[in-house]
Amino acid sequence: MSGNPANPEVKLLPGAGGAEASSLPATTTGVIGGTPPSRQLFEMPREELEHLADEYGLDPTTYKYRQHLVAAIHERRQLIASMDREAMLDVIKWGHRPVTINATKEQIAQEIARIRTMRFEGLSQRGLIVMARLRGVQVSDSEAVPACVKKLKKQEGFFSRMNRKRRAVLGSIVANIVGENEAPPSDYQFVPPPGGVAGPAAPAQPTSGSPTIKHEIEESGLFGGIAGRIKKSADSYVNQKLDEIEARIDRKLDEIDRRLGEWRDKEIANRIRILKITLWASVIVGAFSLIYTYVKVYFWPH
To answer: What are 100's strand-pairing partners?
Structure first.
């Protein structure tokens, strides 16, 4: 025990104390509330980090080293936590992305990152700033709308712009072939929460606000746009059939409940009738017994 003192003296090399003191502020810096520490990101494999970065709107191929990707994801989380939720909802309503009314900022940001369009008509100024920052464009809070749009289009690049225009022309041709016209935009409505009942504040997502096949092809390409439209049609058909099945089940359950109620009422009525007959029989037997005892005592005494 004497060779293991409670407070052993530690000798440091010259300059080590200064290096340790300079590293302390880096470990005590605060993190924006609601953001998990970056220490948890280091525990994820590279594939999960790339998937998470893609959901946040980052390009994981631009980060060669793993620690750079972790730092970028952590910085993006801090950026999302510092954003105005109402401004993020402006982008969601403008892009008609399906979210619940109580969605977190990270869930909203992931839906915003899925918006690839370069048409910004109808988007508010604060929503455009959120869109620009999530796409990696440096803008200020008071940036004008034309300046934001110019920076966003400048970031797109020449070849990306040409490919988008080519996809737009191809989308117009496909839209003319299938005879699809652009529907007027409708009011946005939040998706009901899972397992909840859609109320007046959160009814189901309308289909009239979904992008047309022209815009889908412009954003995702010919096969991607057609596949997305087929998927949406299949989902709509499946949801419709599920609603019909649910309605049939509800009708059957109501009918079973009605029949069980009628059977219960009949059973209760029969039991009450049996109780009445038993009561009257008991009264009659008691009356005959009293009469017999009276006659026996007064008319035929011993």
So the answer is: 191
